[in-house]
Specification:
Blueprint: E1 8-9, E2 14-16, E3 19-21, E4 26-27, E5 30-31, E6 36-38, E7 41-43, E8 49-51, H1 59-67, E9 77-79, H2 85-88, H3 91-98, E10 102-105, H4 107-117, E11 124-125, E12 131-133, E13 138-143, E14 153-157, E15 162-166, H5 185-200, H6 204-217, E16 223-226, H7 235-250, E17 256-261, H8 267-281, E18 285-290, H9 296-303, E19 308-312, E20 315-316, E21 319-320, H10 322-334, E22 340-347, H11 352-363, E23 367-368, E24 373-376, H12 381-400
Parallel strand pairs: 8-9, 9-10, 10-11, 15-16, 17-18, 17-19, 19-22, 22-23, 22-24
Antiparallel strand pairs: 1-2, 2-7, 3-6, 4-5, 7-8, 12-13, 13-14, 14-15, 20-21
Helix pairs in contact: 5-7, 5-9, 6-7, 8-12, 9-10
The protein binds MU-OXO-diiron.
């Protein structure tokens, strides 16, 4: 693969030397339907510096891209902004290959890297606000713990005005068109939203704090360079993603309801349709997602800017329907804020699923604003009336906010 891949120049002194993962469709439980990129960056300064690496299977691709610019062994410094293995996977190999003078990481980054790779290596600690000199330019580090891991940091290259944001402001989108302005905006907005909902949402309060600080710093950012997906090189694209992050992190949704359900013999599905129609009649934006046809990570994406979650599950073998349990376990970890909701379903001998739904709702801090609707075997007219009432109740609370 030595000459098979080329670097892409992104500014006067910096090259993209990452890898394109065209085929990945499952990123630890997140459906990456458009693949992804692992972005790494080569800074040609007096001290030649590599910012992040790529996932281990793409080592040869990264190395070839670096070699299209310089002999990799000429790299002096490596900066590890984030220790998760999609960015650090090639770090042990690169350190052994090039024996860099310095490998910079945050305090937590050094700890995480040593624990991942069972290292006894000497790494170089940088803390929030520290700068390092590359000779003719400088990198300043900003600690961003929990964006996405405790070790995460963002780094700013002063000369070219590049903000390396690691996971933050990225998206899973495989592309050779490295800049955001080469893509349809609606695709970028969707994939950025999906990324936020599925990766960063649990850390929304940290994001809100960081955005405030970012705005106060007023850094002269010319390029925002995340570790996944396209880079942003114009002011409007950069402003757009910061504004979107501010909105998503705020936990304030639109007047929108998401109904998720699965069904054994059609009863819970029929109830979902009646609840949806009731909400629609009340003028509420409503989306019904059958979990037999919808991936959990798409549910998370739709839920990010919704105000209510309604869940329908049959009882199967004295338990939740498996797709419902899967999705709720996933959503519980993502810690959506300020949701209201209700649950419903059909059952045969007992309604044990309702007990589990109640527990999930409590653990997810969802404010239950309408009574559970239970239908034995097949819903009757009264059950459907209760479904309509459930929709009206949710609509009423949303409108009253
Ligand atoms: Fe792309 Fe948290 O790693």
């Amino acid at each position: 693969m030595k000459d098979a891949f080329k670097a892409i120049k992104i500014s006067q002194n910096v090259y993209w030397v990452g890898a394109i993962d065209w085929s990945i469709r499952d990123f630890h439980g997140y459906a990456t339907k458009r693949g992804t990129t692992y972005n790494a960056f080569l800074i040609i300064a007096d001290k030649i510096t590599l910012v992040d690496t790529v996932k281990k299977p793409f080592q040869d691709e990264m190395l070839a891209r670096i070699a299209s610019v310089i002999d990799p062994e000429k790299i002096d410094y490596i900066v590890s902004n984030h220790a998760e293995m999609d960015h650090s996977g090639c770090l042990p190999f690169m350190i052994d290959l090039i024996q860099p003078e310095k490998v910079y990481a945050s305090t937590q980054g050094i700890k995480a890297l040593k624990e991942h790779f069972n290292w006894d290596k000497q790494l170089d600690e940088v803390q929030d606000g520290n700068s390092i000199s590359l000779g003719n330019m400088n990198i300043t580090f900003l600690a961003t713990p929990m964006l996405h891991w405790p070790d995460s940091m963002i780094s700013f290259l002063d000369k070219d005005g590049i903000l390396f944001t690691q996971d933050a402001c990225g998206m899973h989108l495989a592309t050779g068109d490295i800049f955001a302005d080469q893509h349809d905006k609606w695709i970028l907005d969707f994939e950025a939203k999906k990324y936020f909902a599925n990766i960063l949402n649990p850390y929304s309060s940290k994001i809100t704090t960081f955005i405030k600080r970012y705005r106060e710093l007023n850094l002269p950012v010319k390029i925002m360079a995340p570790d996944h997906g396209p880079l942003r090189r114009n002011d409007q694209d950069i402003k757009d993603i910061v504004d979107l992050y501010e909105f998503w992190a705020s936990g304030t949704g639109y007047d929108k309801v998401i109904i998720i359900y699965d069904t054994m013999w059609g009863s819970t599905g029929a109830m979902a349709r009646v609840i949806a129609d009731s909400l629609i009649q009340q003028g509420i934006d409503t989306l019904v997602l059958s979990l037999s046809a919808t991936h959990r990570s798409d549910v998370a994406t739709h839920l990010l800017d919704a105000k209510a979650l309604i869940v329908g599950s049959p009882t199967l073998n004295n338990d939740l329907y498996p797709t419902i349990a899967d999705c709720l376990t996933y959503l519980r970890g993502l810690k959506f804020q300020n949701l209201m909701g209700a649950y419903f379903g059909s059952f045969g001998w007992n309604g044990k699923a309702f007990t589990y739904l109640k527990t999930y709702f409590e653990e997810m801090n969802i404010n239950i604003v309408s009574e559970v609707v239970k239908a034995k075997y097949v819903p009757n007219d009264n059950d459907y009336k209760n479904c309509q009432q459930l929709g009206e109740n949710i609509a009423k609370v949303i409108k009253a906010e």
